[in-house]
């Protein structure tokens, strides 16, 4: 309860099918928690029909207090999406008299939520800060972290990076990743319900998930064509997941359209996150530049081929083969992955139960006792740094 005797008003924010899948149990836990009045901003891809209008999945999950916040038209530049989002989310936080905004990851909508919260003196809680990846995602994630008042991080490596960014140690809580909960379920999941619902093929099949790289807009079409050429050269059955809504998505889509109508290819605009993890668990290889290839696939024991720069430095997993966007190298890496077969699952996310730990922290007093005025903590550089 607040000092005024009312429940603490926590506003979550989701902009993509992936972040909702990871955070769903956190949101449901907060919705049921005593002393918390929870609502969820639904924006981004969720409200675009081309991407499956996944607002319906959120409604089916049982979340009740939803704010529909359209923030873009298709292929709108990220800078405009950010501006649109800040404007709408700021007004919503003020209208709701929000006490906390809860954001996840490194998407532009999450950055908008953090900026809106920080500049309206609304407490900002960030899940999975302190991680690294390629392209603009790093800058977004670290910028967001500097506006967050409390950090729920996956592991000690992420915590160390936030301390390196000058964050106060008491603001950084190692809780694991909510992803671990979903991965634990997927590890023992049955493929049959996924096949029945989505019409995906029986094993063996590969998963192709390719997204635009926002810092390489002039290369997206050429690189996507090379990946498609590599997939065709490698042959086999494929499930193709459409790209996200980042700037440049039309170039990736244009290349993927070459796969339409092939009897050995099923192309889907989106999948529910648990279903997608099940699909990855039973695949012989994941190909593209999705974070799922370097994060979820190794945990599930599925080999992957990571193409290009989008996931630079994201994973040390031995089951991931990193190649440039050259058709022959993509095809060769796919064949190598198939020949090597499944790998021993690799653990990157900490123990199961992160969602419950985040809910417990938000319901407790520790994160609310942290001041809204942050300070930068100077720490000695390592020798040679």
TrEMBL record:
Gene3D superfamilies: Glycogen Phosphorylase B. It comes from the Bacteria. GO terms for molecular function: hydrolase activity, hydrolyzing O-glycosyl compounds. Transmembrane segments: none annotated. GO terms for biological process: UDP-N-acetylglucosamine metabolic process. Pfam families: Epimerase_2. Residues 30-361 form the UDP-N-acetylglucosamine 2-epimerase domain. Residues 297-319 are annotated as: Disordered. NCBIfam families: NeuC_NnaA. PANTHER family: UDP-N-ACETYLGLUCOSAMINE 2-EPIMERASE (PTHR43174). This is UDP-N-acetylglucosamine 2-epimerase (Hydrolysing). It comes from Geodermatophilus siccatus. The lineage of its organism: Bacteria, Bacillati, Actinomycetota, Actinomycetes, Geodermatophilales.
